[in-house]
Amino acid sequence: MKKRNTVLILGVMSILILISVQAFIIIGIWQQKNEMFALRYNILSKDALSFISRRMSTDGFDTVRFLLRQYSEQAVKELHEAKNEKELAAKKKDILDYVTTVVNKEQDLSGFLSDYFGRRGFEKKFNYSIVINDLEMISNDTIVVYRSQDFANRRLPDRSGKPAPPESYRSKILVNWFPWEDNNYRLVFDYFIDFSDKQQLILKETSASLGMSTLSILLVGIMFMITFRNLMEEKRLSNLKTDFINNMTHELKTPLSTITVAGKTLEMPQIRSNDAKILETAKLIGKQSVHLNQLINMILEISMWERTQFQLDKKKVEIEEIMNDVVDSFKSGGGNNATINQKYNFSGAKVDLDIVYFTTLLNNLLSNAVKYSDKIPVIEIEGFTRDNNICIKVSDNGIGINKLDQKHVFDKFYRATTGNIHKFKGLGLGLYYVKKIAEAHGGDVTVSSKPGKGSIFTVIIPY
Ligand code: ADP
User: Fold this and answer.
1) How remote is the CA of residue 243 from the centroid of ligand 1, in Å?
2) CATH 3.10.450.40 describes domain 315-462
3) How confident is the model at residue 426, as a pLDDT?
4) How far apart are the CA of 372 and the centre of ligand 1, in A?
5) For the stretch 103-114, what's the b/e string if a residue is b when 16 or more beta carbons lie within 10 angstroms of its beta carbon?
């Protein structure tokens, strides 16, 4: 139990470590791809900008410049005319709104860029955003209309000469920083592009490594499950074997010790002079030897089965007749303290059977019905035909079998927990035999049971 838990904990921990390592790698790859993506479009944009200014002698904002030039003189005048702080603030806001609208709407840069990207086979669909950092109106003096907090806090320019973008725009790709000074105004703004399906584009690029990681995690998980199940199965078999050896030793010891005691008895002078006692002891020895022989034969036979294919000597027989014979001889043997009721409806069906094995099958079911009982056994045997099969149901009023044991009672050497305390003797082979014999006839056996109420074993054999 301890070993099993350790293996399970170690296994689960290794899988968790593997998943974390893989997740770590994937996050790393993702971040790298993300940065590469931004870098790629940043470089492309720079190329595009120099191409546009070289070939078209514009930066894409010609209309904006023209409009602002017209507007700024009037705007400065209005600022100077403001009567109080409130009016001044309202005027500043109007100016900022107007400039923002014009810069956003009247530019051609987005179209140029989209064209440039598209022609080179890159993604051409993107959103753009323009962030105004600084706006001043100048005539004799300078009036600051707007200065963004981010702009004021900007870090030093990076190597490309541009200051780092404001915090809130870090996820977008900065294309350029435009500082202008013109008639009556000074304006500084950033131009960003933003791909709405960026995640999908990166996902497409990382799908191979993602798939491989998931697959490797899955494979390791499956391998672990298989190994763990094998380990459990091995453990179960080894427990079964130990139980079997204990039970077998116990089973063999009982007749052997009776024989030993009987032998000793025969040596006693008062017994030797008593013919009746000698005969009784000799009979006891004979009976125990037969039992011993039976046990040994059973074990030998099982190991024979393992090595060679089950050989049946089948004959067409009337099933009802065979059933009656087996039950009668069972009654006259060990089963005479049980009430056995039979109800057959075979309609004269003839079945291909190996009579010896079939007798063993039925005997094993009947003797279990008697053995695993805590009251006077009442056994019902029902027989009928259904869909080209004969069905035989053996029901008892015994101790029953719990759900977990029901799954294993037909396994070799398996004994339900109550069986191991030697209250009920056995080797865990009877039902294994039953199953093997039923299967060798092309049929099967199943069990249904309620602990404390009784069990029903159903054998099906095709005919
Ligand atoms: P054995 O009787 O030698 O233990 P079997 O293979 O015949 O081996 O049975 C396997 C186990 O199934 C038994 O140990 C017992 O716990 C359970 N069992 C079998 N038949 C019955 C029954 N009729 N009622 C209750 N338990 C049963």
Assistant:
1) 14
2) no
3) 80
4) 7
5) beeebbbbebbb
Return d(Cα 248, Cα 291) in angstroms, integer: 13
199-216: string of b/e by CB count within 10 Å (b at 16+)?
Answer: eeebeeebeeeeeebeee
Helix (H) or strand (E) holding 17: helix 2-56
- Model confidence at 422: pLDDT above 80: no
Pocket test for ligand 1, best of 401, 407, 414 (most atoms within 8 A of CB): 401
Query: Among all chains, which residue has been given the structure tokens 């940043």?
Result: 42
Q: Per mean pLDDT, which range of 9-23, 234-248, 418-432 is the poorest?
A: 418-432
The residue whose CA is least distant from atom 20 of ligand 1 is 368
Q: Which residues pair with 450 in a beta bridge?
A: 454
Q: Is 416 in the pocket of ligand 1 (CB under 6 A)?
A: yes
* Per-residue pLDDT reduced to its tens digit, 197-231: 888 888 887 888 888 888 888 898 899 889 888 98
| Overall residue count recorded for the chain in this entry | 463
SS3 at position 308: coil
Rounded to the nearest angstrom, the distance between the alpha carbon of 300 and the centre of ligand 1 is 20
What are the residue boundaries of the structural domains of the chain, listed by start?
Answer: 2-204, 315-462
What's the rounded Cα separation, in Å, for the pair 357 and 71?
A: 110
8 Å CB contact between 137 and 185: yes
Query: Is residue 103 pLDDT above 70, yes or no?
Result: yes
Percent of the chain with pLDDT over 70: 92
pLDDT beyond 80 at 109: yes
Strand runs labelled E in 363-437: 378-386, 389-395
